[in-house]
Amino acid sequence: MNGALDRNQRLLRTRARRRALQAVYAWQLSGYPMRQVEQQFAHEQDGETADLEYFHALIAGVEQQHAQLDALLGQVLDRPLAQVDPIERAALRLAAWELVNRIDVPYKVVLNEALELAKRFGNDQGHAYVNGVLDQLAARLRPAEYRA
Questions:
Q1: Each residue of 31-59: pLDDT tens digit?
Q2: 0.90 exceeded by the pTM?
Q3: Of 88, 27, 9, 101, residue with least CA distance to 58
Q4: Strand, coil or helix: what is 1?
């Protein structure tokens, strides 16, 4: 593969992110280990095809690195992360993980995907907040790509 995903692969990743948002949201609220959330989540799915490897990488990465991700987000948030709506918090954590760990995914794709998740599942203006936070984070984490 030359680094670019075909249309079907992009769709599978989008679905993986959507499932990951729901799983991270449940993890945040329940306090259960992600492994347990993932098992329950798998039983509740409607059979929709997704990139399950990417889904697992996202949720495992957020669980393992949430302290570092939260610290990075804290540098650009206007309030404590605990005060951010849980859906937007999940979207921010997922996007922060991708910005840090998946350099192969362009930052604009990461931001757009997070924005779409916040629009679909979050509060009315939650997507605008997510966009503002992630734009600042992308500028810090990927300065050369951001300036290009």
A1: 999 999 988 766 555 556 888 899 999 99
A2: yes
A3: 101
A4: coil
Domain-located, residue 127: yes
Any domain includes 1: no
Looking at residue 138, which CATH number applies to its domain?
A: 1.10.940.10
Which ranges of 102-125 does DSSP label H, i.e. alpha helix? 107-121
Closest CA to 95 of 77, 117, 120: 117
3-state secondary structure of 106: coil
Give the separation between CA 127 and CA 41, rounded to whole angstroms: 24
Helix (H, G, I), strand (E, B) or coil at 94: helix
pLDDT digits (tens, 9 = 90+) for 107-139: 999 999 999 999 999 999 999 999 999 999 999
Tokens of 63: 């669980």
- Token code pair at residue 33: 């280990």
2 lies in some domain: no
Determine, yes or no, domain membership for 137.
yes
- Residue 89's domain comprises 7-147
Q: How far apart are alpha carbons 62 and 54 in whole angstroms?
A: 12
